[in-house]
Structure formats: C-alpha cells, structure tokens
Amino acid sequence: MAKIRKMRLAAAATAAVICVCMTGCGNAIEYKTFNTTSSQPESIADSSSEADSSVIDSTDDSSSEPIGDQPLTNTQINDTVVKEDDPDYLTKTAFVGEALCSGLSFYTEGLKEDQIYTENNAHVDDIASTTWTVDGKQYELPDALYASKRTYIYIWIGPNDLSNYDPTGFAQQYQALIEKIFYANPLAYVGVVSVAPVSAEYDGTLTNGKVYDYNAKLAEMVDKIGNNRVYFFNVTTVLGDTNGNLKSEYDSGDGLHMTGEAYRALLDDLVSMQIHPYLTDFETPDESSEGDESTESKDDNSDSGEESSSQTNGE
After folding, report:
1. How many angstroms separate the CA atoms of 48 and 241, rounded?
2. Distance CA 231, CA 218 (A)
C-alpha cells in the first residue's frame, strides 16, 4: 500500500504541473484536483445545490409518447475542440457496474476479463469496497483500478439501485463513487453511463419515465462537477427507439436484459466517443497573447498619433 500511496502522490503532482501549464490559456477547462494528504477525498461538486427545476417528474409509461421534453445529450463532449484519438484506448479502459454491465464480458470482443469490475449484487454505495486481485495483491476497487493502470473508467450502475434511492440520492451516491476513484487516481477519466431503457412491453416496476428522471439527475450531477475528466453518456441514444424505449431488436425477451448485439453497439459507441485528453488539456498559453498589448499601443513613428493596426500570427 505504501507503494500505491507514493505512485498516487506522483500522479497528483503531475496533475498539478499540468494545471500550472494551463494557467492563462483562454480555452483551457478548469482542472480539479483532490487532497491526497487527507484521509477523506474532497468533494468535487456542491451536492447541496438546489435541484434543477427543468428535470421532469415523469410517471407516464406510455410507449406512444417520447420520454421527456428533450432527449438527454452527451453534454460533456466539446465539439469545438479537436481530440487526439488514442490507438490503445480499448486496452486502457475498465467497466465498473453490476449484473447488466457484466454482459460486456460475454458479448463483446477486445475486452479482457480483468477490465470488467462487476458484481451481480453490487450497489452504487458499496461497490467501491469490493476487492480485486492485481498482480497477486488484493485492493479495494479504486486502488485496483489504479494498480492495473486503467485510464478510462466507465461506471454503469443501475437499474438495481433505482429502488433504493430517489433520483437525487442516486446521483449523490454516484458522485461519492467518482470522488473515491479520483482520490486513488487524479489522472483518471470517468465516463458516467446512463441507466439503460426498458422495452415498451416491460411489465416490471421500472418505467422509462423513471429511467429518464434518474438519468437527468446523473447528467445534472456531471454538469455541476464541472471537471473535464468526467463525461456523461446517454445510452438511450444508442439502445432506445424514437420514444425512448429499448429497441425490440435489443430486447433479450424480458424487456430488461439486452442481446449481444446491443452490447456490441454500445461498446462501439462508447469507444468512438473517447473520454481521453483533449488537446486543450495540454496546451501552453498562446504566445500571441504576449503581443496583444502592443496592438493597443500607438505607433511611435506615426506623426498623426493613430493606433497601429493589429497583427495576427502567421502574417
């Protein structure tokens, strides 16, 4: 464990250096670090904030109407910057979740067994305390992810927990899990995967109206965190039909569990939207900013005293 602590401190120091390099960069996104000297992780968002009144309280399970006023979007993906694809992305990923998430290990290719951290009876409030073996040593989940050098971590929990928490409580527990992962590895990237929809014919207590409410709170939580290392992924855009219900071709037969085709489509989508460093994360301050002040200065050689024209880089 002492070795893990030293490695963690080194990672945190690297993150701090990156933050210093980003100072003054106009398009850099704020990077939040966590206190590695404390016995408890720092909060990455104010969970006491008032709930967004725009989140609907949907109780209608009608399959003929779209779920919610607007489809949830992957709001954390910034389309205005260019990302640099990681060719080894898939081998650096890990998936954390319960029974539904475990299907990724059965139906997809390219993921190894030690990249799937799932427990059938795990819950959002206790999965962090599950133990895993890495190189012959046992670690609790956050340290196991760090020791196994997993950079891109997807969390896909639900629907088991939806009966244990209301949407706000579920999002708060999700945030606490994210904090523990970042405490172990401040340089990780986390993808919050939304709860999957159920079919229109599903006769259980879970409705897609409820699914929408829980996912809306997850998206809201990610937005409030404001950390460019945390992203929200709405799987309904891949698995759902135009009404927000699980597509019939992805229904394994009970309206809840999914086919292998569904898992393959989901993995392809997640990998295509890589949650890795954007170029803005490592940009140095624009050297042209040093010359901006001169654009406002007057030309000493001008008898008329008129301001000199601004010069742009590359001219």
Report:
1. 34
2. 10
Decide if pLDDT at 186 tops 80.
yes
CA distance 141 to 211: 26
User: Closest Cα partner for 243 from 105, 55, 62, 23?
Assistant: 62
Parallel, antiparallel or unpaired: strands 230-233 and 116-118: unpaired
Nearest 5°: phi and psi at 161?
Answer: -80, -10
pLDDT at 41 over 60: no
Q: Which CATH class is domain 87-285?
A: alpha beta
- Residues 236, 194: contact at Cβ < 8 Å? yes
Measured distance CA(91)–CA(272) in Å, rounded: 14
In the chain, where are the structural domains located? 87-285
Range ranked top by mean pLDDT from 20-34, 134-148, 295-309: 134-148
Selection from 247, 200, 242, 230 nearest residue 31 by Cα = 230
- CA geometry: angle at 265 spanning 261 and 269, to 5°? 170
Q: Is 233 left (phi over 0), alpha (psi -120 to 50) or beta?
A: beta
Q: 0.85 cut: is pTM over it?
A: no
